[in-house]
Amino acid sequence: MFQTAFTLSLTQFARTLSLPERLQHSPARNLALEALRQRNLALDALFYDVKVIRPEEVFYISDSLAAEGAIMIVPPSGSAAIALCETVDEFVLRGGDKVRALAVAGIGGSALGAAAFARNVADAIDGPVAVVVSGYGIADVITETFGGLFFFGHLKGMRPLLQAFDDLAGRPKVGAHRAKSASRTSLDTRTVQALLADTRLSFRLLTGHSKGNLVLAAALHDLCKQDEARIAQLAQHARIVTIGARIAMPPAFTDVMDIMGEWDWFGEINSRMFIDANRRMPNAGHHTNTDLNGHLPVTSALREILATVPKMAETGAKVQDDASGSPKGPSPAHTGAASTPLGSKPRAVTIDGVKKAFSENPTPAPPQAETGSAGALPPSKPH
Q1: What is the pLDDT of residues 57-66, one digit of tens each?
Q2: How large is the average pLDDT for residues 64-71?
Q3: Is residue 187 part of a domain?
Q4: 27: exposed, middle or buried (C-beta count within 10 Å: 0-12, 13-18, 19+)?
């Protein structure tokens, strides 16, 4: 627990140092939201394994804790440092075209929590992971007022509509803020969708935790309406693993695994009840912080799941619904196994095989000094 407290304190200290600079841009917005962002940072420190983020990385991302839409490349523990990217093009230039996994975190939405979750995933596949920051802005405050913090699966339509207030208040323009779907989806969802739609990128694993599963599902559903060919291509090669909330994915994705903690009441009230959990982790709740009892072990759970894929003919296929939330057919009972396309040859690989599938990625360039850094958000766009 000491390591978690140390990382949280270090992040808050680094965040405080950057406050005067951030107040030079959109001072009213930053002053109004800073206390809530610090609260959400504390939530992420509680729910995510933040001790896996090194002190120098903490300082590097602290100025962009609430940069909704920012993209990070997070390598495994002990390798290169985190790389922070403003746009999809920058992500590609910094080696994103070799990244094979995309993660989306939930809970507080800070860059620290997102980086911690992504590093757990990166350690499981022994390769870098792309992660999109959910951020925290005016739209989130209003959504929380109506209970969206606890019922994000049922009030998902409110946040995109309210994000216009963030733009009017001077939200920095990062991620896919110029996407055509700007009026219909939130910025983090648009950025995830832009990454999935980009033909320069090829993801083999899509994973989310808590509210991050909703962001991932919304991005896939929107992309399905715009580019069915791309969705078919993604569904052929990518597997989806949701953690801490069961959210309906497009029907094209049959290789979907839903992991829930045995004691995860928060995830249950935000899940679709007609979707059965494939795997329930014993003595685990909603949080993934290994410093605390009852954590859901993301790294070991993913290693186990990615190492073996049983036949769907033996386990039954899980039926997903469309964006409206209505099931398209009966949902089978929990079998504890992942789904694979009917009639396809079952895949069974070792842990080394999993690592090999994700290890063709070059190590992203480490962050440079703030002056002239390609990866850091420029000082003119503090969050």
Answers
A1: 998 998 777 7
A2: 83
A3: yes
A4: exposed
d(C-alpha 216, C-alpha 102), whole Å? 9
- Helix, strand, coil share (%) of the chain residues, nearest 5: 45, 10, 50
Calculate the average pLDDT of the chain.
Answer: 75
Whether the per-residue pLDDT at 260 is higher than 60: the answer is yes
Distance CA 86, CA 294 (A): 35
Q: How many domains does one find in the chain?
A: 1
| pTM for the whole structure | 0.74
State whether residue 55 is helix, strand or coil. helix
Burial class (CB in 10 A: 0-12, 13-18, 19+), 199: exposed
Q: Under 8 Å CB-to-CB from 255, ≥6 apart: which residues?
A: 235, 238, 239, 240, 309, 338, 339, 340, 341
The model's confidence at residue 161, banded by pLDDT at 50, 70 and 90, is low
Burial category of 91 from C-beta neighbours within 10 Å (exposed 0-12, middle 13-18, buried 19 and up): buried
Domain assignment of residue 379, yes or no: no
In the predicted model, what is the mean pLDDT of residues 100-123?
93
Map residue 37 onto helix, strand or coil: helix
Residue 145, in any domain of the structure: yes
Structural domain of residue 344, as residue ranges?
A: 2-358
Rounded Cα distance between 240 and 155, Å, is: 23
In a domain, 20, yes or no: yes
346, 98 Cβ separation under 8 angstroms = no
